[in-house]
């Protein structure tokens, strides 16, 4: 029973519910604390009030989620105790407070893992455990240990030659590797160990495959598959009835009405069969399911209604296909047969899982290692003991239950079932005397990858809300954010979140309430939705030349340019925010702004783009540590010290500053022994007795390195790894060298981190240089970074972090980036899906037919998993939105505004407040699609929506949530960027002083500031250039033999004087990461070149042969299907009818295609105003489309797929010639150096324009005569 709660004094600022959460006791209490509701303050105050009432702090167990939270909790409790001590007048109470301060350092305020460690240290003897062990905390060490154990177990299982293991391997592997089985075993282990009894969980796995009666009576069907199917079918029926309502009685629409009625009747019948659990009859209906062609009605007046009806019908077709696919991959009878066979595979899988769990546990025991999961299981074993079928408390459990007056758990929503079991044996078992106090917010449960189980919170939330077994207290007031942020968040989640998606209803108890009223009223804090239009930007590309600083390659860069412009707008116009510390408004600073991203993968791109806008940035995980040049060099050197017979590491080190060989020198080394390993050539090169003068310098360097390498190899056998690495730094001065490079401080930090990693590695169970290299390789696979960023916390810079990293933090202005990124549902494509409660659902491979079948447990778990994944995405959105104090800006991209409104319009006819489950559970969706669907029925959306009329929902008509929607393409961004540059020019203009003395000082200062470093161009230029990168430099008419690159003032200004490469500073995204729906022109061009490279020139090409080749490339995933469909094969065929094309077909054995080249040129030949007579060189590399090598001459040709608006306009063609003249001159020069024959013709083949231009003579030859 709850005790009497003291009255709240007037000076206390706590709300009634907070006050209750501070003082209520006598039963288990769950505090559901919404974002920004002050839960930590409440938790600290509850501890203080316990102490004031006479409880010693060591009689409280406070469990936090992180070590940082535990430290903060102790610090805040200490501050409150010291404050209470200074205010207290009673000597006895003062003494009590002093005692608490002395107990605080050893009080049980820690993470659950730290507490488990203390339990084991005290009661290890209860489980016969050796108390001397090392905590295994490094994920890479754990993974290597698992792999070693699994390799041994797998070898033994193969040697036993048992059919059951071969079947298991076949089911989860492919023809090339059994990595699928390895991943399965590791995942199986993780899920099993998250349960209180892993072995029992494994034993129970086959149970879900053993169905005695009909499948329709099984719990998997009744509880998991049936409910969502019936709901979706009912919505489908409603849509068909809407189609009938629009079509019945309308002239010319009789066929439409008949079609709707026919499909409605089928849907009703199908729904009834599923409701009655008659799966065989339902399956028979799916066998006759077909969709007739939609009738055509050519009546202009009916166009709008026909489009509406057609959209409804398309949605119905999609839904019905999805339902039948989710329920009936097989006939019910066949499904039972498959499940009987699959049960055998699952039983074998469980057996292998048990063997691995035992072997891995024994190996850790042998090496004296304990991981975090072991801590929990050992603690549970210490606290509880099984006698028969009953679990009983041990003496340790009894001890802790009597020791702790209360157990307080922070972030309870992130607890898993194993941890819940531990808490059970620590708290009092009687609910009417409960002493468990739990605080959390299930809407912020975003750690499923750590196997957190939010259902534990939800179960108690429901039970305690009904006053069963405990009490629920809701903290809804938000003391963090402006009402505009809270209202917008409520607007979104009132429509998105419920028990099915999100796993908790977003009702009045869950809604955010404004609790901070000091913010000044203003209209400038409305949430903004900013959309980048991809397709529109691509369409203007040819006719609209972007500023070179603003080259946008893909939708990610477009979104980031838009974001940067918005940030500069806020900063430049002095956007006002309220400073809670100063208690007044002030202009926003960079450090007030945060960018929240779904992943870290775009961090390097963000750095690149924000540099152009002069926006300082703080990114903790911007760079893959192992891709840093200095680390790659060091890893290569360590590989050589371990084994010098490795070509790539050896070439990398020789080319690095440690040895400093040029590429021509590397060639000379190889020529010493043309066959065999490069190290053998290296040794042969060093043995030369009479080298030529031009080789002697190289030999001096290579011999010195060979001697040094031998010393290091000998040293590696005597000293520790960290000492070896440090000795390398000393011998090579490599630390000093990288310190002088751009970002030198960070590079040095990276090298220091490598020393630290080596020292830490030597404390692990692995030893030796070879194992360390393997260790590093495994870290690279896991993309783990080592180096800490060299950044000050209070730096005035925009911060970038993931949504996960932002949890618990708050920022005045929040940008949510990449919101149109499709949800990651890759887990649903695995052959096995795990669930900590329901076990495992597998796809079964039938040996005879080699067909993969989706079993019923797989279908059920796939649906459950998808629901969980999307629920977590929804909770991540909640976390992201609630980080904002004052301003929220959401960033995404669509092809164009019509595409955006089309996606959002899927909810336009919904008349209920909460969106239908099928709308929210679409796998190919995104956070922005969800956001858009929640906005279109609000009054504010009407200002931006020119496409359709959305339903009016009563609850949304007067909703206080406010927002704006803006669309932006490249042209608009160019305008904004130009305005920024103009304002920068104005700001940097020299100030005119009327005083003569001031003018003298100004002149002297400017002279010093404007000092011209004589080698500035060399400092700004990399010595490695591709032809495609320097192509644009040749468009300048001021070209001597080839062309010159001019580094303009605007470029220097925008990059703060640092230009690393004469090109766009962004790397284009790999094709598999691109999310554009329509292929860009560059993709079509690349695909066309690929096709031309593979055409068989020995026979006459035909349209059929070209199409067959294209289909083959598409089927092999070498060309994307959408890209392939955009290639104009007739243009290629026409080319082969031209004189040049016929020449290629006439000499197929003399045609060379896709020929790479590299050549060294003096920098002064390439870069305008580069100091003459300098020794600086640039390495130019590229690929020549092709050439014909005849007896006396060479003919070079290059394909272009540029779009030309008007082929008959000479100026248009001249632009193309001007664009590529320098590039083709380089090709000609490279070919002339390679082949000792004159290049008599250089043909540029404009495929789309059907013109061939001879770049030597200037002649323009039509392809079609």
TrEMBL record:
The gene name on file is addA
Briefly state the protein's biological role. Answer: The heterodimer acts as both an ATP-dependent DNA helicase and an ATP-dependent, dual-direction single-stranded exonuclease. Recognizes the chi site generating a DNA molecule suitable for the initiation of homologous recombination. The AddA nuclease domain is required for chi fragment generation; this subunit has the helicase and 3' -> 5' nuclease activities.
Q: Where does ATP bind?
A: 33-40
Can you name the source organism? Candidatus Enterococcus clewellii
Residues forming the UvrD-like helicase ATP-binding domain are 12-482
Q: What is its EC number?
A: 3.1.-.-, 5.6.2.4
Matches recorded under Gene3D superfamilies? 3.90.320.10, P-loop containing nucleotide triphosphate hydrolases
Please indicate which superkingdom the organism of origin belongs to. Bacteria
- The protein's assembly and partners: Heterodimer of AddA and AddB/RexB.
Task: Identify the taxonomic lineage of the organism of origin.
Answer: Bacteria, Bacillati, Bacillota, Bacilli, Lactobacillales
Which residues does UniProt assign to the signal peptide?
A: none
Q: Entry's PROSITE patterns?
A: UVRD_HELICASE_ATP_BIND, UVRD_HELICASE_CTER
Q: Which reaction does it catalyse?
A: ATP + H2O = ADP + phosphate + H(+); Couples ATP hydrolysis with the unwinding of duplex DNA by translocating in the 3'-5' direction
What keywords would UniProt list here?
A: ATP-binding, DNA damage, DNA repair, DNA-binding, Exonuclease, Helicase, Hydrolase, Isomerase, Nuclease, Nucleotide-binding
Q: What is this protein called?
A: ATP-dependent helicase/nuclease subunit A
Q: Give a yes or no for keyword Endoplasmic reticulum in this entry.
A: no
The family this protein is said to belong to: Belongs to the helicase family. AddA subfamily.
The family database entries (CDD domains) matched by this protein are listed as: DEXQc_UvrD
Can you supply a Gene Ontology BP term from the record?
double-strand break repair via homologous recombination
Q: Does the keyword Hydrolase apply?
A: yes
